[in-house]
Amino acid sequence: MSELINPNPIVHERKSTVRIKSGQRTEASAAEGREPIDALEIFDHIRDINDPEHPYTLEQLNVVSEEQIEVDDGRGRVSVQFTPTVAHCSMATLIGLSLRVKLMRSLPPRFKIDIKLSPGSHSSEAAVNKQLADKERVAAALENPNLLSMVNRCLTPPH
Amino acid sequence: MDCVSLELVASLPGHEDRVWSVAWSPRGDLLASCSGDKTVRIWTRRFGATGPPAAITGNSDVNHIQSTGSTNASGAQQWYCCAILDQCHSRTIRNIAWSPNGRALATASFDATVAIWELSGGVWEQVAELEGHENEVKCVAWNPDGRLIATCGRDRSVWIWESLPGREFECVDVKQGHTQDVKAVRWHPGGELLVSASYDDTIKLWNYDGDEWVCSQTLGGCGHTSTVWDVSWAPDGRRLASCSDDLTIKLWESGAAGAGAGAEAGRSSAVSGDSGGHDGGDGGGGLVPSRPDLRCATTLSGYHQRTIFSLDWGPTGLIASGDGDDCICVFGQGDPELARVALRASEEEEKQVPVATTTTTVSWDDGAERPVVHQQQQGKVELKDQDMGGGAGDITDVDPDGGVRVKCPGSDAEVSALGGGGKERLNGLSLGQEGQSWGLWTRMVGAHDADVNCVRWNPAHPRLLASCSDDKLVKLWRLR
């Protein structure tokens, strides 16, 4: 195996999060008889995604956090920012792709999902963001069996 | 309230994955759609009392689609899938294009190939394969005389192919000017100019210098600030429209044409309703292919909230656009109130059409460049655009050699107009006023339940718009 990009990442504890019942059920979602989707719910979908090169989850490496998620349930918008452990991380696109695929598979199709690097977190921030936002490139990537198996490996739950 | 609006004519399920592109046949009677499900579907319509649909293709099951079609003089119209083209491409089919004579289809796939299909003995068959791109092919376009095909893709190149006798296709040039994926290629209606749009944020114009295809202009710099997803020439070829991930639509005019605008005012208004036909003498329409000198004349911003994936400049002079916010917009030039009056008038004309006075037969004789139109007129009929009304022909018979006879219950302007030499101007419904400022005429929020990937105006029924989406549906809209 080739050399690791970040040989010694800082590993954080998996937080235990408690959902605080907020009274902010919107009229629309109350009428449909469902709870609105919030940032914590999105976080629960992505926190246990495996890092492509370390035996840790994206939460343990602080790549994703609840604070970096914005949700507008009414308009059907989810925006997730992620922070690679090093600024030249060549895995950034793969991590972003895994985040997108996980949310595509988990959320109702009415949601528009935007995945971006957190500002200043990567040396090729604009290029990576542009690639992750290009649905045609994403669609083509997911038809590539090698890439798809790498994504699926990231999405496989720990045994 | 909008002066004009889009009314849903039909919602066509069938594809099993996102639908990437739609393309109308040159006569406007068939719609092809292509999808991530690796198939092409061909859609056509039948009318209430004509019984079961004529099988013009035996390739696949004939799907009976419940449509929300409206009722008119000739009864309820129903759109249905009349053919499925499959088992050819191993990956997503991204784009499709009809040959100018309507006899062949080209499909561009992520599997790096382009397939050519022909209707033969009632069945669509793959007759050729264009191989050469390194990876995903993203767009394919036939030039107006059907002699050349342009393709582009992720390998950053634009390929020009020449059609040779015996269904052979030869690559005549590979252009490497773009620095990133090339998203779209479209030919100028005059045929001597090709435009390409790219992920590198630029648009390039290519023309043939007698030896090879050369880039005659790059629209960058003060142009788009993100991926250019689609481009469309005005029907008269004098202007170019582009749409981008930067959420704007830009309209480009030739600097030369702009300078002479005053002197040409009379001519301009005469040209504005021309339905895509070009007179051979002035194919460039003020554009010199070797020196197009296009400049951004108008930027339409603030109308789309997410990536604009597609746009199409229709025969009436209106521009439709579709975006990643499930929305379709229609932009027009001048006063939309005047357009509404023109629309009303054309709807009224449609209702007064005498029934069963004209029989039109269209045949494709082998060797003929275009369909041959035989029209018998009984009584005096004024030929007018019938839109989706009485003029629509039902395909009633198929010759073993692939010819299709079309019988038309009413007058049949669009068949003769588009099937014939293209000289007639029978559907000259002009809604925009050239020289006036552009504005949003109508916006269809939630046109689909997901991203709108492609919008295309019907060339023969200029008020009819097709769209397709990640929601796996093809939809048809009528401008009212």
From TrEMBL, chain B:
Keywords: Repeat, WD repeat
One of the Pfam families matching this protein, by short name: WD40
WD repeat locations: 12-43, 86-120, 130-162, 175-207, 221-253, 445-480
Keyword Repeat among UniProt keywords: yes
Signal peptide per UniProt: none
Bias type Low complexity, positions: 264-273
InterPro entries hit by this protein: CIAO1/Cia1, WD40/YVTN_repeat-like_dom_sf, WD40_PAC1, WD40_repeat_CS, WD40_repeat_dom_sf, WD40_rpt
SUPFAM superfamilies: WD40 repeat-like (SSF50978)
CDD domains: WD40
Positions of region (Disordered): 262-290, 379-402
PANTHER family: CYTOSOLIC IRON-SULFUR PROTEIN ASSEMBLY PROTEIN CIAO1-RELATED (PTHR19920:SF0), WD40 PROTEIN CIAO1 (PTHR19920)
Annotated family: Belongs to the WD repeat CIA1 family.
Function, in words: Essential component of the cytosolic iron-sulfur (Fe/S) protein assembly machinery. Required for the maturation of extramitochondrial Fe/S proteins.
Protein name (database record): Probable cytosolic iron-sulfur protein assembly protein CIAO1 homolog
